[in-house]
Design goal:
The complex is a heterodimer of chains A (about 425) and B (about 900). Chain A is elongated and about 105 Å long. In chain A, helix 10 runs antiparallel to helix 11 (about 295-305), helix 12 runs antiparallel to helix 13 and helix 14 (about 345-360) packs antiparallel against helix 15. In chain A, about 50% of the residues lie in helices and about 15% in strands. Chain A has three domains: about 30-265, Ribonuclease H-like superfamily/Ribonuclease H (Nucleotidyltransferase, domain 5), CATH 3.30.420.10; about 270-320; about 345-415, Methane Monooxygenase Hydroxylase, Chain G, domain 1. Chain A is α+β, with helices and mostly antiparallel strands and about 425 residues long. Chain A has a seven-stranded mixed beta sheet, with helices on both faces. A two-stranded antiparallel ribbon of chain A has the order 3-4. Chain A has 16 helices and nine strands. In chain A, helix 5 (about 155-170) links the parallel strand 8 (about 150-155) and strand 9. Chain B is an alpha/beta fold and about 900 residues long. Among the domains of chain B are: about 5-25 and about 265-420, P-loop containing nucleotide triphosphate hydrolases (Rossmann fold); about 40-255, Rossmann fold (3-Layer(aba) Sandwich); about 450-510, Arc Repressor Mutant, subunit A (Orthogonal Bundle); about 670-755, no CATH class. The longest helix of chain B is centred in the N-terminal third of the chain and has 21 residues, at about 110-130. Classes of the chains: A alpha+beta (about 425), B alpha/beta (about 900).
């Protein structure tokens, strides 16, 4: 019987290139020559750490790294009151570079970047496994660095980084240090605030559009990173790693800067002039979700005086109108419905018709809004899904109003 | 009306009685009861008592309990409805009730089965807890299914809280093992693994599954758990051996069935032959409808098993029409709602709620006839019925018994009827029902060390946990494991560091590895559905040219598709669903070459071998053939690149002296032909008549003369002579070489014309026969085997040879087994052929005769006589039974 590799070859298995491996040459740049880091030894072996320090004067784009305020709104939003009283030094900002995106036990976090404030300065540490056998030492060093931190801050960490790191710890039979810890995943808040304005809410996009930070040419797109690491493992050539460390460091810094930006935006009665009008409306919605209607009304009113795209304008008007309606303040709601109605908004017509019919008992006016709504629906393309149900309910309303009008006319024939 | 009255009616009806080819009474067997053991958890004893007052258990259930308590791995192979699930539920639930850290994993072959068992388990758990109300100290057992239907939101809670998980092999393979860290507590507590319906895990599926179990054991070991396996099986020939191969541990076998059963009448009904020359029989489906009509009238609850969804629907339609016209006195066509309640279908694709309703209908008696596919064969609780009809042999004897086992409520009398079709295996069983009644000859075979399958699972296992140097993988050859790991390192999928092999790739291997196929590469089958393409399956690359060539008719779950396009670059075949009255038969030129012989032995008049071979297949076109009549419509030429299959084969080479003896009697036609004294003259006349042009492509002769082709093959005239169709006095070669039978062709066109015509000879008849009979021992489909007959084979020093080879690359163990049962296989072939009612050969024996030659049957019979063991020649095949007991079903 031929050997199993020969049999597999004969069976059509592609064995890939076998002899193109660049041999490890001594003149190839070593990790220490490329990066300002050092090997660190602990009970579980050796791992490689790169550290850097950022003083209070450091600005990431237009933002400082230190959070500006207490985190009332943020803790409300994530529903975790534990983070309310934490000092800045208790937050750990974390981002990983991995060997793939598919998850499962065969995906490794070969580089883990973490930052935290130590005596007012932002301290960044990057834990790197020079090969996968260093993983236990890497994970142990990370756990030591985190110490007694109070909360972790990530971007998409709930779905990706933290489950992946939990898997890594459990694989070695350890309890994950992240179990039960407070966790702020800024992706969810970023989605809420910038969904309507930015084409996508990746950290790179937020960094560029919101934080105003830029990266140098040293950066590398995320999708290339796994392959670059595999290449390094095979060739021992560390030079491309510089880009990965830079990429990871920028991600951690952006996390801290975004956190600081959000603390300012959400917690302080801010100077609204520095924000985009659409963002103010998103912020209003954010406050509405938290039940802070006063702040929401204030933001909508302010934004309505600014230049707004039609869709944002309509949304602000409607939101405001519904808040007034909920508060039974029809005086304030009516001009807003009228404004929305002038934007061909069917529901506002109906709201006006309801208002006149039930509150003001002005059936004529109610009939007018019903009729314009009917015409509006008719003028729209048939493909609009709600058209049918609108037509039915509007015709129903119309008939009822005509009947009411008739009755009123009978009682007051002179009118 | 009772069963015996129906049988009396049949006796009186010649149109039924005449077709009954065998009638066996399977005697009643009293139940073998034992008291419930006191060591069981009191809540379980209570629950058993309240459930219909069970005060005793069957002997096999007790045996399972006792062996399980000793910590042994065990397999229970008793009949249908013998209470097998209690065999594993008792020890598992008992343990879970006694230790809150213990966990159990139940693996069922399908999602539906897992869900059915969950329902049964839940109602048992309810009884356990109501047996001990409000007892705070009792441990709660949470059973949950975990499969593709489990919502993402429910998954975390299930992983955390459930101590009994019901799942299927695919979920284990893609969803659980690669994410074992999410299951760390579950694996740390895992004690029991239950594998239900283990006989399903055979062939490719079984070989994959055995590797998935290697991975499961590896992960469990990582979390410090030692597993105890409990398996159940239908009755097959090798339950203990098969279980041991699956789990790679020693296994205790429990096969003494202690459940009781009533008298069962088992009848084989062979629909009458309507055309003796072509071997065409009346349709088994139509005959089934005729018999079922009687059951319907007499209000006898009946279950009909059909082989495809399509047949189920046809039988349903016929029966409902018949029943309706009876109700309406022959007026009106509409099927009333009540009618559809009485006659119901049951197959895959029904919603769980519909299935529950049908099962309820069966138990309560409102459903009088249920027409089902084998979806109803596996462990679903419907109680017993009075009568079961099987339309066609279900493919394996194990399935046949599972289906027959559905007849019989408690110890009441019942009956089961097998209606045989014209397929060779059906006809074989019609003539040799002892094979079914005696101990099953069926072996479940797997080869977990098939290199391709092993490679697949080593990838998955390396993803799950790094391998350390020298680590083995189940009972795979350790040196081979090491070699594959190095290969994967070379391939840059693994990285070797610090004595370990780490997965270093951004792929998730389990995603792309199907447990049901083995191939380095495959072709995706994409069906047009409205305006999009839906992937309905795949075929391996090597089989693609003959299975899914453009124009081929492809069957998938009883639906018919035509292949519109086959794209080798993109590995895609595009299908469109069609209704056709024909199917297609590919024409493939096959060349078999030897790689290595692994075993050989002289037998009488022949030599048998098995070993590794290469099969090169060249697709040259296909024939359209009409359904039912198997009448050829047209042949279409086509070309596709050749494909190579490296696999295992079993072959038998006929010794020269055997052939000599056949030759002397005029029963060997595989020699080069002497075309007769007038051939040279006739050939020149034909070329001149055709003006030296190829009559297909029009090419003119150049320096070499064109060929002259016999439209009706010359060999066919020789066989007509043998069959007495051509008078002995006349010169048959004159007829064969008559100008009307000759046509001028260029060498290319001639080659194509020859491949379109296959002459039936003794050798090709034997090949056809063996190909169709071999699956009976292998529990596989005829299409899992390829066959090639060669009068001068490279496999055996130029001797005439028939080779059966495995369509699965690198093989799954079929060849070695065929080598071992060589004598038995040939005897079976002889028995089928000598009892076949046709004249010159038919689809049920050596393949259709007719125009292609008349001697196939006679010559095959002569050939077989020359190579079967002399001492058993001519005897009835009954001598083959190892065991004269009645089957334990």
């Amino acid at each position: 019987m031929p050997s199993i590799s020969d049999r597999l070859k004969a069976l059509g298995v592609h064995l890939g290139v076998s002899n193109l491996d660049t041999p490890r040459l001594s003149k190839q740049p070593k990790l220490e020559e490329i990066l300002d880091g050092h090997p660190a030894v602990n009970h579980f072996g050796e791992t490689f750490i790169v550290e850097a320090d950022y003083g209070p004067e450091y600005q990431h784009g237009a933002n400082p790294l230190q959070p500006a305020a207490k985190l009332n709104k943020l803790s409300d939003w994530v529903g975790d009151r534990r983070i309310l009283d934490l000092p800045p030094s208790s937050f750990v900002f974390l981002d990983t570079e991995t060997t793939g995106l598919s998850g499962g036990t065969g995906t490794y976090a070969f580089l883990i970047g973490v930052g935290r404030f130590i005596e007012g300065r932002f301290h960044l540490a990057q834990f790197f496994m020079r090969d996968p056998s260093e993983e236990p030492a890497q994970l142990y060093a990370l756990e030591e660095f985190m110490g007694s931190s109070g909360a972790i801050v990530t971007y998409n960490g709930k779905a990706f980084d933290i489950p992946l790191l939990n898997t890594r710890y459990i694989t070695h039979g350890w309890r994950s240090p992240f179990t039960g810890q407070s966790h702020l995943d800024l992706l969810h808040i970023a989605r809420r605030l910038w969904r309507d304005r930015l084409p996508s809410r990746t950290l790179g996009n937020i960094e560029y559009h919101i934080l105003g930070a830029t990266r140098t040419e040293q950066d590398v797109p995320g999708w290339m990173i796994p392959q670059m690491y595999f290449d390094y493992l095979r060739s021992g050539d560390a030079s491309p790693l510089r880009s990965i460390f830079y990429h990871n460091a920028m991600d951690v810094l952006s996390l801290a800067a975004l956190f600081s930006h959000l603390s300012l935006m959400l917690e302080v009665s801010i100077d609204r002039t520095q924000y985009h009008a659409v963002d103010l409306i998103s912020l209003g919605k954010f406050f509405e979700d938290l039940g802070d209607l006063d702040s929401a009304v204030e933001l909508y009113r302010y934004a309505l005086d600014l230049e707004l795209p039609d869709s944002a304008l309509l949304e602000a008007v409607l939101r405001l109108a519904y808040i007034h309606k909920k508060r039974d303040d029809h005086e304030k709601a009516m001009p807003l419905w009228e404004k929305a109605a002038s934007h061909q908004h069917v529901e506002s017509h109906v709201e006006l018709a309801k208002l006149f019919e039930h509150r003001l008992r002005d059936y004529k006016e109610a009939l007018y809004w019903t009729q314009t709504a009917i015409e509006l629906v008719r003028s729209r393309p048939d493909t609009i899904y709600e058209n049918r149900s609108w037509s039915v309910s509007l015709e129903h309303r119309k008939t009822r109003l005509m009947r009411k009008l008739e009755r009123v006319n009978k009682h007051n024939p002179n009118e | 009306m009772s069963i015996s009255q129906i049988l009396n009616q049949w006796r009186a009806d010649a149109s039924i009685w005449g077709n009954i080819v065998s009638w066996h009474m399977i005697p009643a067997r009293p139940a073998n009861f034992h008291p419930i053991p006191r060591s069981l958890h009191p809540a379980i004893i209570q629950a058993l008592n309240t459930a219909g007052g069970i005060q005793a258990m069957y002997s096999h259930q007790l045996a399972a309990w006792e062996k399980a308590c000793l910590g042994e791995h065990l397999v229970i192979a008793t009949g249908t409805s013998s209470g097998k699930s209690l065999c594993y539920n008792l020890p598992v639930l008992d343990h879970l009730l006694k230790d809150s850290a213990d966990r159990a994993l139940y693996i069922f072959p399908t999602k539906a089965l897992a869900q059915d068992q969950k329902t049964i388990l839940d109602s048992f758990l309810v009884r356990i807890y109501s047996a001990i109300p409000d007892d705070e100290r009792i441990i709660r057992i949470v059973a949950a299914t975990y499969d593709g239907d489990t919502s993402v939101s429910a998954r975390t809670a299930i992983r955390k809280n459930a101590n009994l998980i019901l799942t299927n092999p695919d979920m284990l393979h893609t969803g659980i093992l690669p994410h074992h860290t999410n299951w760390n507590e579950f694996f740390a507590g895992l004690k029991f693994v239950v594998i239900d319906e283990m006989h399903i895990y055979r062939g490719v599926f079984g070989s994959h599954f055995a590797n998935a179990l290697r991975r499961l054991k590896r992960i469990a070991g990582h979390y410090g758990s030692r597993l105890q396996f409990i398996l159940t099986s239908a009755t097959i020939a090798n339950p203990a051996e098969h279980a041991a191969r699956l789990i790679e541990e020693d296994v205790s076998l429990i096969e003494e069935d202690g459940s009781g059963r009533g008298v069962k009448q088992f009848i084989v009904y062979n629909p009458p032959i309507v055309n003796r020359d072509l071997g065409i029989r009346k349709s088994a489906l139509q005959e089934c409808v005729r018999l079922a009509e009687g059951f319907l009238k007499q209000k006898i609850q009946t279950l009909i098993f059909a082989r495809s969804r399509r047949s189920v629907e046809l039988i349903l339609t016929y029966l409902r029409q018949i029943n309706q016209s009876q109700e309406n006195g022959g007026i009106g066509q509409d099927i009333s709602a009540q009618n559809t309640q009485i006659i119901r279908g049951y197959r895959s694709g029904y919603l769980p709620s519909q299935r529950r309703a049908i099962e309820r209908g069966l138990r309560q008696g409102s459903a009088r006839i249920v027409v089902a596919t084998n979806a109803l064969e596996l462990g679903i609780d419907i109680g017993g019925l009075e009568a079961v009809l099987l339309v066609g042999f279900p493919g394996t004897i194990a399935s046949t018994w599972q289906q027959i086992g559905r007849a019989g409520r408690g110890e009441d009398p019942s009956m089961a009827v097998l209606l045989t079709t014209a397929a060779p295996l059906d006809q074989y069983l019609a003539g040799n029902i002892d094979y079914l009644l005696k101990r099953s000859p069926e072996q479940a075979l797997i080869n977990p060390n098939n290199p391709l399958i092993l490679l697949d699972h080593l990838r998955c296992a390396a993803f799950e946990l790094p391998f350390h140097s020298g680590e083995g993988f189940g009972r795979a050859e350790q040196s081979e494991v090491g070699e594959i790991l190095q290969l994967l390192t070379l391939q840059r999928t693994l990285h070797y560091a610090g004595n370990r092999y780490y997965w270093m790739s951004d792929h998730y291997p389990a995603q792309n590895i199907s447990l049901r196929s083995t191939s380095a590469a495959s072709i995706q089958l994409q069906a047009r559905e409205d305006y999009s393409l839906v992937t309905i399956g795949e075929v391996d690359l090597a089989s693609a040219p003959w299975m899914v060539h453009p124009g081929a008719i492809y069957m998938h779950e009883a639906n018919t598709f035509i292949i519109e396009d086959l794209n080798f670059d993109e590995h895609v075949a595009v299908l469109r669903q069609v209704d056709t009255d024909f199917y297609t038969e590919p024409r493939v030129d096959t060349e078999v070459t030897l790689i290595s012989i692994l075993g050989s032995e002289n037998t009488d008049g022949a030599k048998k071998y098995y070993g590794e071979i290469k099969v090169r297949s060249q697709f040259t076109g296909y024939r359209k053939v009409r359904w039912y009549t198997h009448e050829p419509i047209e042949f279409i030429e086509a070309q596709l690149p050749p494909t190579d299959l490296i696999t295992m084969g079993y072959w038998l080479a006929i010794e020269e002296r055997t052939i000599d003896s056949l030759r002397q009697r005029g029963l060997w036609r595989d020699d080069p032909i002497d075309y007769g004294p007038n051939w040279a003259k006739q050939r020149d006349l034909a070329r001149a008549r055709d003006e030296y042009r190829c009559q297909v492509c029009g090419a003119l002769e150049t320096d070499r003369s064109h060929h002259v082709h016999h439209k009706t093959p010359f060999r066919a005239f020789i066989s007509k002579l043998g069959a007495g169709e051509v008078g002995q006095g006349s010169q048959f070669y004159e007829l064969a070489n008559h100008l009307d039978n000759l046509v001028t062709l260029c060498s290319n066109c001639h080659r194509r014309a020859e491949t379109a015509v296959r002459v039936r000879t003794g050798l090709s008849g034997l090949a056809y026969l063996l190909n169709n009979l071999a699956p009976l021992s292998l529990m596989c489909a005829p299409s899992d085997l390829g066959v090639h007959a060669d009068p001068a084979s490279l496999l055996a020093e130029g001797l005439a040879t028939v080779v059966l080879y495995e369509q699965i690359p690198a093989g799954i163990g079929f060849s070695q087994h065929l080598f071992e049962i060589h004598d038995e296989l040939l005897l079976r072939a002889y028995s089928l052929l000598s009892t076949c009612e046709c004249t010159y050969g038919c689809p049920s024996c050596v393949g259709p005769g007719g125009e292609m030659g008349y001697g196939g049957k006679q010559e095959t019979l002569a050939l077989l006589s020359g190579i079967i063991r002399v001492h058993s020649q001519g005897q009835s095949p009954e001598i083959l039974g190892h065991d004269s007991r009645y089957p334990r079903h």
